[in-house]
């Protein structure tokens, strides 16, 4: 915004005013000259008539001499009257009056006197005195000739005045026009060319040009205003360039920070089992992005004192000031982080909840502070590293828990099936020994031996079933691929036609739920093959309106009379235990196809709300 003083807005010498004034003067001079010429022309018009009449007096004088010689008094009187009228005409009188300072009035008076006193009386008598008139005629005509000459001289003087007036007017107009052109060239044309050239330069982005216009006119005011505007535009342009440069640098820093964070997150989550190695590879890039000193990383074990890993962005080795495992002497914990080289260690803790996982440190000049974007980047990186370490620790813990749970499941399965079968056969062997010691007959011993053999076969079958169950793999995500493989396995090995209907594509099940469902279905299909004597089987999985998972295994076999496992068979018992593990229930009845129907229902984990959380929300 231009800051121009108000008193400088009005020029003292206006080019427009002076130009208009020059044109007014030219017009005024031209009008005056025209009026003067008109007046002189009007005066010359009367002089011409007077000269003509004065010249006719000479002719009339000679005509009177001729008329007097003809003895015609009337004609002579008429010519005398005509000469009187011509001599006293208004044209001559007005011409004589317009020249009072000349000799014309006196000369005209002499001619009147000479005519009235001498020339006319000689012709007015009867008879006319013609000879005396003729003797005086030459003198009278000489006077008339002089009078006409004087009239011509007077007229010529008027023409001279007209010429002088015209030449003077032309000179004045030319002089004023020259001065006007000169001033317009100096005060208008040249400044306008300079201002136009400056405007082009401003339009082209060059704000360094200046125009100097002398005087105090409109154009000098415009030049000063343009100079001030160009200066302010140059300052604004420089300021804008600086702001654009700053914003560009800020955007580049933000882009570099986002790129670093994105690549860091991708690297850390691509190998979550070993985040420390990935963090070490990122330290050099962190230092380049920050534009600061070396960046170091120290990692702790939760619940322990001191660091177990330290690395620097220079060579992925512990920093030169590091004294692992004597972390109490670390400069980061004393003297406000000052180092021997004058730099200061600025640390950012890696925390996960209440656990301190380590620290991310950067060397920076002691007299300088980190910029806000640098602190934000380091804080975000520290949070990212802490989250990665926490996830890795949780993954290890979950792996250990899963291994322990798997071992507990194996132990439970062995205890509930094979251990009980072997324990029963152990009792049968003790009974066989007692019978043999008592000397029992051969039939009794053979019967007991057959029961032992039958029990061992059953135990062997259970062992094979357990091995098959423990070898189940769910390679593809979801339950459906594993069930398809199971249906294909049972159909191809037994010839049983299995109708499979799966309607749980939009129901997320946990891995534990998928394993239990798969084991229940395999156990049910195994029972169909062993006991049902069926040719077809229907397997339906769906979710009802309440969100409960429903699994139905139905066959067209001989059916079942009871839901209690016969002696030595634990399939139904295992089904109930697995249903309880899913927080559900299992029922066995007669199906619509005439055979047995096993019905498993349980609420999925994602639909169950913990009671503790629910009570807290109610509070």
UniProtKB/TrEMBL annotation:
GO-annotated cellular components: plasma membrane
Pfam family, one: HATPase_c
Histidine kinase domain span: 409-606
InterPro entries cross-referenced by the UniProt entry: HAMP_dom (IPR003660), HATPase_C_sf (IPR036890), HATPase_dom (IPR003594), His_kinase_dom (IPR005467), NarX-like_N (IPR029095), NarX-like_N_sf (IPR042295), Sensor_HK_TwoCompSys (IPR050482), Sig_transdc_His_kin_NarX/NarQ (IPR016380)
SMART domains: HAMP, HATPase_c
Coiled coil: 219-257
All copies of domain HAMP, residue ranges: 186-238
Gene3D superfamilies found in the cross-reference section: 1.20.5.1930, 6.10.340.10, Histidine kinase NarX, sensor domain (1.20.120.960), Histidine kinase-like ATPase, C-terminal domain (3.30.565.10)
Membrane topology: Multi-pass membrane protein
SUPFAM superfamilies recorded: ATPase domain of HSP90 chaperone/DNA topoisomerase II/histidine kinase, HAMP domain-like
Alphabetically ordered keywords of this record: ATP-binding, Cell inner membrane, Cell membrane, Coiled coil, Kinase, Membrane, Nucleotide-binding, Phosphoprotein, Transferase, Transmembrane, Transmembrane helix, Two-component regulatory system
E.C. number: 2.7.13.3
GO terms for MF: ATP binding; phosphorelay sensor kinase activity; protein dimerization activity
Catalysed conversion reaction: ATP + protein L-histidine = ADP + protein N-phospho-L-histidine
Enzyme type, top EC level: transferase
Compartment(s): Cell inner membrane
Regions that span the bilayer: 15-35, 161-182
Record-given protein name: Sensor protein
